[in-house]
Design a protein that fits this description.
The complex is a heterodimer of chains A (about 325) and B (about 325). Chain A is an all-alpha fold. Chain A is built from 17 helices and 2 strands. Chain B has about 325 residues and is mainly α.
């Protein structure tokens, strides 16, 4: 289901599309040009510039020597051409607790995000498949309930979930999901991602033609065979879209990390470290600029590399509320 | 290197355990006695998701609701936490700020996003222009926090400015300003960051909707001699109304829950706190889980109507199509 009737006009009206591009008389083309007038173009350019400059300034600054960053504005690079990689070396290199150590935290982010995304996708797809193709009483009601769980803000679950982890879910003195490990973060992220995952994947899986599944069933395939051999391959586009979303969302998360990670270099993600550096060393711009860029590198790569899936996910209503 | 190997091992072990659990479920599902197979299969596919949601979301939400009526010592105190929230000056400021956020961000982000989508529609280089404004969507709130703190950075009037906004003030002969410290206007400078992030979302969704407007309608309006503005007001807006509302409500939900921006840029000091941030501060910093829970509950009650409205709208759109 897409919330928005998107990008289909060209397919629906192929003839019109042809007329527009090839056979349109010059007068009409001129009318069109006047509609996207100079004022509009100017406004668009201004918006684009305002939206880009902050990131650009940060990027340029991250390559400037410390004294320059602290001494004058980044726009001075155009007259004072000095660049260095020292800031990146400084923030990435392993060191004592005083140094940013971002390399370590970067690895943590990956270690949190990859399993967190895979768990959510698999468990979500399994449930979505049953909600789409299983036959049992109360299915619709249960599905609506799961959908409705999206309403519950993360904030409402944090305190009790932390108590569960530390006080209830343990055997003897041994916590099932020990504090200060990735385990709590994986579980928390998976739980918080599930309602949206189930909802979006259900909408896609429900559109798979029934004959395909019926045919497999006639051949004697059980649910597990159908799920792994038919549903998962056919649902790959939806899994990719949601997967990218979940990946970015987990990578950029701060709140869940603050509550469950404990904050050390062995578990905490890069966002948390960056937030810490801002608090404790708010004036160390040579570190903050380089650090911020290290932390947004992966999301930007994902974004530019997979923009198509990203947009598709957005249009399917995949914005984490 | 050792660090990476050790963390990588944790991830691999976790993925292996997860695969084993899912494998066992599939095995049970396939080997179940014929008579009960269908039921076992359905249960097996739904169980992981439902157990996680019950333990990690439903129970915590109920628990939080109960907590909101208790004090720091865990004693039942009736509505005192809510009385605190609606009478104490600092709590009232938090509520006031949340209202300002929730009015301004959806309004401005949607308007700018819509204007931009219209301006660049079918323009040369549309894709690149879109990517520029859309890019902040991929950046974490923490990263955005660093970017914008750098934009707002302050140096005394005698020194060279390193923050762009203050430099512009200086160029126009003004004195530099502590953008994040001076209440009450500092809230607006935080809001600007959220608008910067959300405009791209509005723009992409609305642009897709605009491209979905049947070409016939546009041609007809044009033949009737409609000006660009008339066309926008009488054709574009009514046709994309559905998408517009979805955008506004989605951004509203995201804004109500905004946490990271405030946390990283001011930590809610200098009268900039919002409900989601105050919730974290009370529950995890000030040792007042009851107040935190009460704030979470209020957040839930604020989000609830918007989500319900949003869901109903999505369903209506689905029926129309």
């Amino acid at each position: 289901m897409s919330a928005i009737p998107a990008e289909n006009t060209n397919k629906v009206f192929p003839e019109l599309q042809d007329i527009e591009t090839s056979e349109r008389p010059p007068i009409q083309r001129r009318v069109r040009q006047r509609l996207t007038s100079r004022g509009a173009t100017a406004a668009a350019v201004i918006i684009a510039v305002i939206w880009t400059i902050p990131t650009f300034g940060l990027f340029v600054s991250s390559f400037r020597p410390e004294d320059n960053i602290k001494g004058n504005g980044w726009w001075n690079v155009f007259t004072d051409w000095q660049f260095t990689l020292a800031n990146y070396e400084d923030v990435l290199a392993p060191g004592g607790s005083q140094s940013p150590n971002l390399g370590s935290y970067f690895v943590n982010s990956l270690a949190i995000v990859i399993p967190g995304t895979i768990f959510t996708l698999v468990i979500g797809a399994m449930a979505a498949y049953m909600f789409a193709w299983g036959k049992f009483r109360g299915k619709d009601g249960l599905f609506i309930f799961v959908f409705a769980l999206q309403i519950v803000p993360l904030q409402m679950a944090l305190i009790p979930l932390l108590q569960l982890f530390t006080q209830v879910l343990k055997i003897g003195d041994l916590q099932l999901f020990p504090s200060g490990t990735y385990a709590q973060l994986w579980v928390a992220h998976t739980i918080f991602g599930l309602p949206l995952a189930i909802f979006l994947l259900h909408n896609f899986i429900a559109e798979i033609p029934g004959e395909v599944i019926e045919a497999a069933r006639v051949d004697g395939a059980g649910h597990s065979t159908i799920f792994w051999r038919i549903i998962i391959p056919l649902a790959t586009p939806a899994l990719a879209s949601f997967g990218i979303f979940q990946f970015l969302w987990l990578w950029n998360d701060l709140l869940v990390a603050l509550v469950f990670s404990g904050g050390g270099a062995d578990v905490a993600p890069i966002t948390q470290r960056l937030a810490e550096l801002q608090g404790s060393r708010g004036g160390e711009w040579q570190r903050l600029t380089a650090g911020a860029f290290v932390s947004i590198l992966i999301p930007l790569a994902v974004f530019f590399g997979l923009q198509r899936y990203f947009v598709r996910g957005l249009l399917a209503g995949g914005l984490k509320g | 290197m050792e660090d990476i190997a050790e963390k990588g091992l944790q991830v691999v072990v976790a993925l292996a355990i997860f695969a084993a659990i899912i494998g066992v479920i599939m095995l049970i599902v396939d080997r179940a006695p014929k008579s009960a197979r269908e039921k076992v299969q359905i249960a097996g596919f739904l169980a992981p998701a439902l157990v996680l949601l019950a333990v990690g979301l439903v129970y915590p939400a109920l628990q939080t609701t109960y907590l909101s009526f208790t004090n720091a010592a865990g004693k039942f105190i009736g509505l005192d936490n809510f009385v605190w929230m609606f009478t104490q000056p600092e709590a009232l400021i938090t509520l006031r700020n949340t209202v300002i956020w929730v009015v301004l961000v959806p309004l401005l982000a949607s308007s700018i996003g819509l204007a931009y989508a219209v301006f660049i529609d079918k323009a040369r280089g549309e894709k690149a222009l879109k990517a520029l404004v859309f890019m902040p969507m991929a950046i974490s709130f923490v990263g955005a926090g660093v970017i914008w703190r750098f934009v707002y950075a302050y140096k005394g009037a005698e020194a060279d400015q390193i923050g762009l906004v203050n430099q512009i003030l200086v160029w126009f002969g003004q004195t530099p300003k502590q953008f994040l410290l001076d209440a009450p206007e500092n809230t607006f400078f935080l809001i600007a960051v959220m608008i910067w992030i959300q405009t791209g979302f509005a723009m992409v969704v609305l642009s897709a909707a605009i491209k979905g407007i049947p070409t016939e309608i546009i041609e007809a309006a044009r033949l009737d001699g409609a000006s660009a503005w008339q066309q926008f007001r009488n054709v574009t807006i009514p046709t994309i109304r559905g998408s517009l509302i979805v955008v506004v409500t989605t951004i509203t939900i995201g804004t109500l829950k905004v946490f990271d921006i405030v946390r990283t840029m001011t930590a809610g000091q200098y009268e900039t706190s919002v409900v989601a941030n105050e919730m974290y501060t009370q529950a995890f910093r000030a040792g007042e889980p009851g107040r935190g829970a009460a704030l979470a509950l209020v957040l839930f009650l604020m989000v609830l109507p918007v989500v319900v409205y949003n869901a109903r709208l999505l369903r209506q759109q689905k029926e129309i199509r």
